[in-house]
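Weekend entry, working from home. Most of the wet-lab plans are on hold until the incubator is repaired, so I used the time to fold the two sequences that have been sitting in the queue since the last round of cloning. Logging both here for the record. First:
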Amino acid sequence: MPVTLSTSRQSRVALLALTGATAVSLAACGSSTETKPAPATSSGSAPTSSTPSASGKGRDWVKGLIDSVSGGTIQITAKSGPTTVDFTPATAISEITPAQLTDVTVGSCVWAHPDHADAPAGSPVNARRVQISAAVDGKCPGPAHPAGDKPHHQVPPHGQVASVAGNTITLNGTDAQGNPSSTTVNVTDTTKYTKKTAADAHVIAQGKCLVAHGTRDNSNALQANRIDVQDAVNGSCPEHGGKHHDR
């Protein structure tokens, strides 16, 4: 004998069937979504690295008073705080000592720091500071910029001494385009002189001033390819020409 359902019960059965179908459909959609790879997200657990500064092409530099020296590691106090400088036997080390006008001779190399850093190129320079060094293979090295890189600051006049007449020094060098140029440097009784000579690691000592050029590593230590050392003055480091230290 056939079973007859009441109208209300038929409605409940239909509703349950519809609900079940909807649940199956949603489950299927959920399964489809979970099979997709989760998008990459930024989280604290992701590995990170400390990269060298943007000037990591050998243009990094530090200046400060030497606190200690241990092997190839130097600890200095810079304006920014304690800093580590590492050096190797390949690091070029120079010592800077006081000098005078008579040390400026024909054939030597000179960097002249003018009273006004924005003096027009090619015009006579009134020097407040002059640094002297010996020529290498008869030539004077220029500023060391990486290939294809341009200096971010004006480079002080520099070149090989062509003549010295009284308080006037004439330098032969090259201009920004690499063409031969001549610069007249005027000095006065207030001009300061220093002399730069090649040295070894023995000149790196506690209490001296250090300027190091190189590249910072991931620990922010400077891996130095060049170091200049000079005596402190009353416990402080004297002026050393800013970012474009003499070469």
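Second, folded right after the first finished:
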Amino acid sequence: EIYSFGRKLGQGSFGVVIEVKHKDTGKKWAIKKVNRKKAGSSAMKLLEREVSILKRVNHDHIIHLEEVFETPKRMYLVMELCEDGELKKILYSKGHFTENETRHIIQSLASAIAYLHKKDIVHRDLKLENILVKSSDVDEANEMKLNIKVTDFGLAVQKAGGSVFQSVCGTPIYMAPEVISAHDYSQQCDIWSIGVIMYMLLCGEPPFVASLEEKLFELIRKGDLSFKNTVWETVSEAAKQVLRLLLRVDPAHRITANELLDNQWIT
């Protein structure tokens, strides 16, 4: 018994997340406790993938995995505790964030994603629910500064490094243009997600909304951004331009995480 168990932080379909305290150090952690049988083999695969990726990363804005305990029936992940919960809940209670508050969040997020992409890791499931808030301060202008952590790497993939020619190739005469230019745009899906998140932080609603999935996909493929909500009157043109760069339909012309970090709106 190294940890004393405290309150329940969340409940998944096959496990719980509990706040715990390390008995020797007094430090608080979050333990994700998963029942192997309930989870089933496919969910356990996702969990193992998450563990293997978290063991390879170390970044201020990515959730830290402290240790893993395994028993025949269960798996326990000891993770950094994020006292303030999901970013989504904070957004809902506030309605929307100011431009400065949003800038601070997006800068942290972009820095985490640039770090992952440099390691050839694509998150693939970035959304408000997967961004946790470790702590929050209020500055002299009464604006929130949130310390965010990206979590939930169950769907993340690590791309095999190395040149495309060694891995895919065969004969170049049959190759599609996007393969030849060796621009693997798969990681650009994360950038699109950052755009959706930024839009939601600024105005409180998603950029593309439809009651039917088919209609939604159509809107997403068109990618027409609307800034009609009156909230947008208080948002700078520079911020809107960043949104247009993040939500470019063609991944080849979408801004990269590094370019986002260098963008004047962020810096």
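Plan for Monday: verify the second prediction. Strands lie at 3-11, 15-22, 28-35, 65-70, 74-80, 121-122, 131-138, 144-150, 157-158.
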